[in-house]
TrEMBL record:
Belongs to the short-chain dehydrogenases/reductases (SDR) family. Keywords: NADP, Oxidoreductase. It holds the Pfam family adh_short_C2. One of its GO terms (biological process) is mannitol metabolic process. Its EC number is 1.1.1.138. This is NADP-dependent mannitol dehydrogenase.
Length: 343
């Protein structure tokens, strides 16, 4: 049996479509001592190994079900004068944000957070039409903020250029970009990694991040109002996850971090700040399935805070990075991982 250890697992549950390997519990929920890891190589051959699960109580790691929907609440402008100067710097009255991958998950939660600090408009860019429309409608209804959905695949340069132009025309400005669209392949061995999968992931995670930043950057430079770009990288851009193989995802996120620094240096003269957020293992709705409970115990056991990140745990940092409160901060990669990368 191979012992479970630090950097034990992955985000594959949030990206099921790319999952090649599956973890399955060998015991009943709450009593796992070990889990079987079954993988299928590209020839379809089945391979199996066993991982030891750290001791835990009987309680499930997370209750099954969806994220608890917390309604966003708008910030009333009349409150602005009552805020202290420091608090005023955290507000974004009159600003407009675009958020890729804003249809759900971390992107949607950060959209909610921006809607609570005064933005006048939010453009959700996502490849999923129905999901994106629903999210935009939902957030508008909750807050009265003008939230619009744009169907954009971040690999499609023409669609990106068109959407960014439409945002600038409709709202009259674009001040904030959050690049949250991304996918993951995991449990794919480097020696057999299919070229088409490798290229696809890089196309979405790194080229997509660049193309959207470029289109929005061009608008910001033209408008001469400066701006803030926030790229969602991952702790996988700084460490190698263990035991699963995910070389392409890790490389893509390291590239996002270095792209962030490069753009920050180039565009500082245009008063555009560029920073990245690197989340650790996040407890998103998609991985709230009992079959993953044992795996989550390994993730948590290797996290000093002994929990996964909540889906809204990036929100306040996103607000800070978007706001004048962080005006001297650029080119930074901010880890939010409950301390996972410390060990
Ligand atoms: N969930 C985690 O544990 C975790 C950890 C570290 C980093 N991240 C990163 O955070 C970001 C968001 O992750 P999430 O957990 O919210 O994922 P998610 O799958 O819930 O949401 C991603 C969103 O991006 C959209 N998207 C995917 N491909 C796209 C494309 N080609 N064009 C436009 N939109 C596209 C999806 O439709 C979806 O709405 C990703 O970049 C991911 O790599 C997530």
């Amino acid at each position: 049996m191979r012992a479970a250890r630090s950097h034990a697992s992955t985000v594959q549950s949030a990206f099921k479509s790319d999952l090649v390997r599956a973890f399955s519990s060998t015991r009943t929920l709450g009593d796992e001592k070990s889990i079987n890891v079954v993988s299928f190589n590209t020839s379809g051959k089945r391979e199996q190994e066993t991982l030891a699960v750290p001791a835990a109580g009987n309680e499930p790691v997370t209750p099954p079900g969806q994220d608890i929907e917390v309604a966003a609440q708008p910030l009333k402008h009349e409150l602005f004068d009552k805020l202290s100067p420091t608090m005023q710097k955290f507000t974004l009255f009159g600003k407009v944000a675009a958020i890729t991958g804003g249809g759900r998950g971390l992107g949607y939660n950060m959209a909610q957070a921006l809607s609570e600090v005064g933005v006048k408009g939010i453009a959700i860019f996502d490849v999923q039409q129905e999901l994106g429309e629903k999210s935009a409608q939902h957030l508008s209804a909750q807050t009265g903020v003008d939230v619009r959905f744009y169907k954009v695949d971040v690999r499609d340069k023409a669609a990106i250029q068109q959407a960014v132009q439409d945002v600038a025309t409709h709202y009259g400005r674009i001040d904030i970009l959050i690049n949250a669209a991304g996918i993951a392949d995991s449990n794919v061995k480097a020696e057999t990694y299919p070229e088409n999968m490798f290229r696809r992931l890089l196309d979405i995670n790194i080229t997509g991040t660049f193309l959207v930043a470029q289109a929005v950057g061009q608008q910001m430079i033209k408008a001469q109002n400066g701006g803030s770009i926030i790229n969602i990288a991952s702790m996988s851009g700084s460490i190698v996850n263990y035991p699963q193989e995910q070389s392409c995802y890790n490389a893509s996120k390291a590239a996002v971090i270095q792209l962030t620094k490069s753009l920050a240096a180039e565009w500082a003269r245009h008063n555009i700040r560029v920073n990245s957020i690197s989340p650790g293992y996040m407890d998103t709705a998609l991985n709230r399935v009992p079959a993953l409970d044992a795996q989550k115990r390994i993730w948590m056991d290797n996290t000093p805070q002994k929990r996964l990140g909540a889906v809204d745990d990036l929100n306040n940092l996103a607000v800070y990075l978007a706001s004048p409160g962080s005006s001297y901060m650029t080119g930074n990669n901010c880890l939010i991982d409950g301390g996972y990368t410390l060990w």
